[in-house]
Every structure is written in C-alpha cells, then in structure tokens.
Amino acid sequence: SRRVTVRDIAAAKERGEKWPMLTAYDAMTASVFDEAGIPVLLVGDSMGNCHLGYESTVPVTMDEITILSAAVVRGTKRALIVADLPFGAFQESPVQALRNATRLVKEAGVGAVKLEGGERSAHQVELLVSSGIPVMAHVGLTPQSVNAYGGYPVQGRGEEAAQQLLRDAKAVQDAGAFSVVLEAVPAELAAEVTRSLHIPTVGIGAGIGCDAQVLVWTDMAGLTSGHVPRFVKQYANLREVLGGAAKDFAEEVVGGSFPAKEHSFR
Ligand code: KIV
Ligand code: NA
C-alpha cells in the first residue's frame, strides 16, 4: 500500500473529512502511530523541547531534524511524513529555504516540509512548491519567535490581529501551501479562516472548526513532565506507566528476583 500524499489531503477537504496529525521523532514511535492509522506525521522542531532537552525550538539544527526525519521515514510505511524547517534554515531567503528543504527530501526522504510564517514566508513557500516540494505552512503562534513574543501568547485577538491572521493564511494558500497549521488562535477566528480557505487548516489550540488537529505526541500520551498547555488532551499516562516499569525493574534487580530461570540460558 502506498503512502498518503498531498492529493489525498486535498481530497479529504473536498469530502469534508477531518484528519489527525501527531508529531514523531523516532522510528519506533512513528511505527506505532503509522500502524494506528495516523495519516500524517510531523517531525516537528518541538523535538527541541520534548526530545533534545532544549528550552525552546530555537536551537534545533538541520542536522538534528534530518537525522530524526530519516528515522521516522524508515519506521513508517503509510503516513505522509512532514518535517519542520528549523529556526534559521529558511528566513534568510527562498534559496536558503530550498537548499534546506531539498536536504530533508533527499537525505531523509520526507514527503513535505513545514515552515513558520504567513505573509513573511510566502516567497519561501512559493519557491519550494514550484520546485516540487509540498509545503505545510504555520501561522498564528509561531514558537520559533518566542524571543520576540516574550512567551507563547494566544494570537489573533482583536480586529487588527484577526485581519492579519486571515491575510497570513491567504498568503500561504496563494503561494501554494497544501495545508496550514493554525496555532493558539481563538476558535471562532480559526473556523472563519478554515471556511475562507480551500486548503485544509490543521489546528492546535485553535478549536473544533479546523479541518485537522495536531498534538505533540508526548503531550497527547502524557509523557511530558510538568506544565502542558491548556489545549492538550492527555489520552494516556505514559509517564506513570513507563516510570512504573522502570521502578519494578529496579526493585527486582535490587531484590534479586530478576532474572528468573525463564530469562536465563542453561
Ligand atoms: O513542532 C511542532 O510540533 C509543531 C506542531 C505543534 C504544529 O510545529
Ligand atoms: Na514546529
């Protein structure tokens, strides 16, 4: 069976079908999501926070994204794999964006890339798409701008900000993006953006009115420690399950009950 393509994504919007997206950063986890039927997996630069131990997505490098994207591609058979262009890998120019996106397609084998920004990134989107690389755009809250925001504030509040968000979404659609992430946007505005576009919107903290929904997998599965944003729903408590397994193993080693006969060669 073949992989999901951007044509399938376009067809889903025409049929009014909603779809889920999760992040993935390694082959094994990606294979679980692929087998669960998640059609699109994002090798997000959120790997900076939840996988590489950075405090934001800002330090993530092309090398890091490329290596983990290749692992996710190898671990999957069916999902469309989308890789983030990290901070500093596309802002300089459309040519820089194309060079780095090409690396993700050729070295890692991803089917599409994602980059942050609406109007400000439209020229990048245009060159990538005209070069044959499908692009998922990302507007609203763009975490690579954390130093400019001074945090992670909800976007699009107030008439002026709402109009800018609509312009941003329209700009990336016109530039040829096949879909657009709306992050941390009031639900009513996200629904309005979704109605006004012919490409699907992928919401995160953007309410029920989007065409698709994405969550960071470690948040969704309850593996993240400490604070998780309000828009996250935890569908499992992996931190408890995994921590419990580690404690049981430790106890049995210290207490001398592991390994038992059946785990030993004779
Ligand atoms: O890096 C990421 O995980 C993302 C999603 C939250 C959209 O960009
Ligand atoms: Na990201």
TrEMBL record:
Active-site residue list: E183 (proton acceptor)
Reaction it catalyzes: (6R)-5,10-methylene-5,6,7,8-tetrahydrofolate + 3-methyl-2-oxobutanoate + H2O = 2-dehydropantoate + (6S)-5,6,7,8-tetrahydrofolate
UniProt cofactor note: Binds 1 Mg(2+) ion per subunit.
Source domain of life is Bacteria
Its cofactor is: Mg(2+)
Q: Where does 3-methyl-2-oxobutanoate bind?
A: D45, S46, D84, K114
The entry's keywords: Cytoplasm, Magnesium, Metal-binding, Methyltransferase, Pantothenate biosynthesis, Transferase
Q: In which pathway does it act?
A: Cofactor biosynthesis; (R)-pantothenate biosynthesis; (R)-pantoate from 3-methyl-2-oxobutanoate: step 1/2
A Gene Ontology cellular-component term = cytoplasm
Q: Which Pfam families match?
A: Pantoate_transf
> Which InterPro entries did the record assign?
Pantoate_hydroxy_MeTrfase, Pyrv/PenolPyrv_kinase-like_dom, Pyrv_kinase-like_dom_sf
Q: How does it assemble?
A: Homodecamer; pentamer of dimers.
Similarity annotation: Belongs to the PanB family.
Question: What's the name of the protein?
Answer: 3-methyl-2-oxobutanoate hydroxymethyltransferase
Organism, by scientific name, is: Streptomyces paromomycinus
Q: What is the lineage of its organism?
A: Bacteria, Bacillati, Actinomycetota, Actinomycetes, Kitasatosporales
